Amino acid sequence: MSEAYACVKKVTIAANRAGKVKIESRGLENIPAEDGFIFFPNHQGMYDVLAFLESCPVPFAFVIKKEARNVILLKQVVDALGSISIDREDIRQSMKVIRQVAEEVRGGKNFLIFAEGTRSRAGNKLLDFKGGSFKSAVKAQCPIVPCALVDAFKPFDEKSIKPVTVKIMYLPPMYYEEYKGMKTVEIAAEVKRRIEDAIAEQIK
Questions:
Q1: Pairing relation of β-strands 38-41 and 21-26?
Q2: Cβ contact 116:130 at 8 Å
Q3: Total domain count for the chain?
Q4: Which residue has better confidence, 191 or 16?
Q5: Where residue 129 sits, what CATH number does that domain have?
Q6: Which residues fall within 8 angstroms of residue 29, CB to CB, at 6 or more apart?
Q7: Mean pLDDT within 158-184
Q8: Which residues contact residue 63 at a Cβ distance below 8 angstroms, ignoring those fewer than 6 apart?
Q9: Who wins on pLDDT, 1 or 122?
Q10: pTM for the full predicted model
Q11: Where in the sequence is the domain holding 13, given as residue range(s)?
Q12: What percent of the chain clears pLDDT 70, i.e. is strictly above it?
């Protein structure tokens, strides 16, 4: 996967340059040294994954809603990284994806999951994080890495050719010891709170 990731990363960086998008990343030191963890960022739009692809030094796959599975460029990225599409209307299939992600994370693969389930259409404001999104992490007993995206909605949503800066902050991970006694809805609320605090700090 590291070869495919390096290739996708190279293409993403070139696309970002061409689109006049600058990625500012912070907190790379918070990414766990050992593979087998899940990133949980806020979700602002189709561009979010591209911000991660440029800034993240370690390979990861992601869970994507089936409706976005065939979006040009994303489709190729999904296939190259071994990402998984989820049908949120199909409970059985969703449970299967949760189990599959947990299994792959236990095997040392990293994932990215958007816990809001759908993108916020309110700029840097967050929707509620869904508890079910954290079931894979609980099953895998893996580190949860909250990530805060700022202005990631701008490259695709704002009809402008002006240069854009997207900020991404990798926050300190929550290890299993910290969240093992919590319900998934409580984990979701805590991760959301940490991301909101980080965003508020950035846009003061």
A1: unpaired
A2: yes
A3: 1
A4: 191
A5: 3.40.1130.10
A6: none
A7: 91
A8: 83, 84, 85, 86, 97, 101, 111, 112, 113, 114
A9: 122
A10: 0.91
A11: 2-202
A12: 92
